[in-house]
Structures are given as C-alpha cells and as structure tokens.
C-alpha cells in the first residue's frame, strides 16, 4: 500500500444510501439510541491522499470539533513519516543516516517495521527505497543496490536512530499509512466516539458497527477494473482494519509485471499476485502485511496469514483467482 500516491482506491465501501460516507454505526440498544444520533462525515486531502472520517454522534457540533482535531492529529503523523517532505524526520534520516532525537512515534513505527522484517524473513523491508528510486528512474540492473537493502541495519537506541550502511534509505509507504489511520481512530476514541470509520487511500479501520448493528461491508477491488469501481467480492468488517496492496495501484508496465512493490531480496516485482487484502486488529499491521503478502506470493502468504492471530487475508492471483484464509468471510460481489 502506498502511503501518499495511491491513485486508485484499493477498497470500496459498500452502502445502499450514500456510498462511502453513509457508513458508521455500532451496536446500541434501541432504548439507548438518542433520537438525534446522526452520522457525520468529512473528507480532507493530506499530502495527496484523500482521508474520510465518519463518526456517529448525537451532537453535531461535538462531532465536527472532533473531526477537525482528528484531521490535525493525522496531519502531524503524516509530516513525520513522509520521505517526500524535505523537512520530515524521515527525510532527514535518509539524508544524514542519523537522527539524534527521533520523534517517539517514528521510533515506534521503525521498531514495528523491523519486527515485520523478521516475521516475513525480509519480504517486508522498509530499506527498499534505493531499489524503488532506481526502478522509478528507469534503472533495471539493481543488483549493486541490493547490498544496501537490509532492515537489520536499522540501529535504534532510545530515540537515536542510525542507518548502518552508506547509501541506505527508508520508505515507510508500506506501513505508515496504517499508522496514520490508527492515529485517527485513537484520536476519535479519546474524544469519546466509539462508532467510527477512518479511511485513507483505500485502507481503513472501524470501531463498532453501523447504526443498525450490522458490520460495515468492504468491497475488494477487481485488480484489472478497479478504476471503474468494479468489486470482486465483499468482506464484512466490524472493529477491524483492512488494507489492500495491488500491482495496479502504481504500475510501471502495461501488463502489471513491474509495479511499486518490489521483492527487497530480489530487486524486482513479485510475479504471483495481483492484490493482497488483509484484515487485522490495527491498520498498521494490515498495511505492512498486505505489502508482505504481495511479495511472499499465494502459498507462503496464505500460510503466514493463517498462523497469525486475528489476521485474515484474501489474495487475488494474476489470473484473477481468489484465495482466502479459513476465517475470511468472503462473499461474492453480487451477493
């Protein structure tokens, strides 16, 4: 999943009435449901990504105040994690190879990124940036750059962060969007809202359910007709996060063989899957695992998702077969 320039939405929120913005809710006994409880939604673009917030509240002014505060909290996180912003902590680390006092949130994300590197045996590796930059610049012989790609070189000591290899650089595009979504959910929760949906560039997290007590429904995009809004299948989601990575989101080749997801171990795009959708407890976990499963491919990817507690996955192969973990309640889009 691409933190900033995901042009094509990875998932489509499905709802009968108002599309993406009608989705909110939670299980509330009818007697407790104040008659004025209503759904409040807003959209803001933060550094190229459209972010939707939806909250159920019985006070419109409180909801609007909370939404504004939450967008501000999310914007602060984006400003830390975006390597494209020259003043960001991450851009500074990439330039100098060292941060004497990294922001606490950034240290946390980097620690988690290293853990996902361990979990996936290097299929998820945030130090892949030099390979991606070269690929975007049209360089195809990437073998020499592969030597600086290794998540194990990230040295973290308190708030000091150091890149152990000269020429190394980090992109958090495969994990930070999830962390920004989690930050939005946490901000709304702390402001007293427990029926919320936070969505950014197709990745999302929910608290509670819709007002009628049913789960949200998330559509998995057809990887070859995503731009037309076509959906392959539908997942019910309640108090969970969902993220999708796909070969169609930022592709370098008409046949989708080269795209923005690279196998950090090989320096080329993985060949097996068209998309990987992951359900997990947090958006950060879903975001990182979606990227990792694209790299691991169908067999190893499904095996990893099956053994992780609270994680389900739906993988779509290049020939558009859907493979799902045993606990994924996938329904065909026509259902």
DSSP summary: helix tally: 6
Walk across the major sheet and give the strand order.
2-3-7-8-11-12-13-14
Distance between the termini: 27 Å
Average pLDDT figure: 86
Supply the helix-strand structural class: alpha+beta
Amount of beta strand: 15-25%
Q: What are the segments in which pLDDT stays under 50 over at least 5 consecutive residues?
A: 2-35
* Tally of strands: 15
> Percent helix among the residues?
25-40%
Biggest sheet features: 8 strands, antiparallel
Overall outline: globular
Radius of gyration: 20 Å
The SSE order reads EEEHHEHHEEHEEEEEEHEEE
In short:
The protein has helices spanning 60-81, 89-96, 104-119, 129-136, 176-190, 283-307; strands at residues 11-14, 38-46, 49-57, 98-99, 154-157, 160-163, 196-200, 203-207, 216-221, 231-237, 241-246, 273-280, 312-317, 322-324, 331-332. With 335 residues, the chain is α+β, with helices and mostly antiparallel strands.
């Amino acid at each position: 999943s691409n933190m900033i320039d995901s042009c094509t939405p990875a998932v489509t929120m499905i709802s009968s009435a108002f599309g993406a913005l009608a989705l909110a809710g939670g299980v509330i006994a009818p007697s407790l449901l104040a008659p004025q409880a209503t759904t409040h939604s807003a959209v803001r673009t933060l550094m190229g990504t459209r972010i939707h917030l939806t909250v159920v509240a019985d006070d419109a002014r409180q909801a609007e105040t909370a939404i504004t505060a939450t967008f501000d909290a999310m914007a602060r996180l984006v400003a830390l994690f975006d390597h494209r912003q020259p003043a960001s902590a991450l851009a500074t680390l990439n330039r100098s190879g060292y941060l004497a006092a990294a922001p606490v949130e950034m240290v946390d994300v980097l620690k988690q990124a290293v853990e996902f590197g361990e979990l996936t045996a290097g299929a998820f590796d945030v130090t892949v940036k030099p390979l991606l930059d070269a690929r975007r610049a049209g360089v195809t012989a990437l073998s020499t750059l592969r030597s600086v790609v290794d998540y194990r070189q990230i040295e973290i000591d308190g708030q000091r962060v150091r890149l152990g290899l000269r020429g190394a650089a980090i992109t958090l595009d495969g994990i930070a969007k999830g962390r920004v979504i989690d930050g939005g959910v946490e901000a709304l929760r702390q402001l007293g809202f427990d029926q919320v949906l936070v969505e950014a560039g197709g990745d999302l997290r929910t608290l509670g359910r819709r007002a009628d007590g049913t789960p949200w429904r998330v559509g998995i995009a057809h990887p070859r007709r995503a731009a037309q809004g076509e959906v392959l299948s539908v997942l019910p989601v309640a108090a969970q996060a969902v993220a999708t990575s796909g070969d169609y989101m930022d592709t370098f080749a008409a046949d989708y063989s080269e795209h923005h997801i690279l196998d950090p171990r090989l320096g080329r795009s993985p060949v097996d899957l068209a998309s990987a959708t992951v359900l997990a407890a947090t958006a950060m976990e879903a975001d990182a695992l979606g990227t990792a499963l694209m790299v691991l491919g169908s067999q190893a990817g499904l095996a990893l998702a099956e053994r992780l507690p609270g994680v389900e996955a739906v993988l779509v192969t290049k020939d558009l077969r859907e493979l799902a973990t045993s606990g994924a309640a996938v329904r065909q889009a026509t259902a």
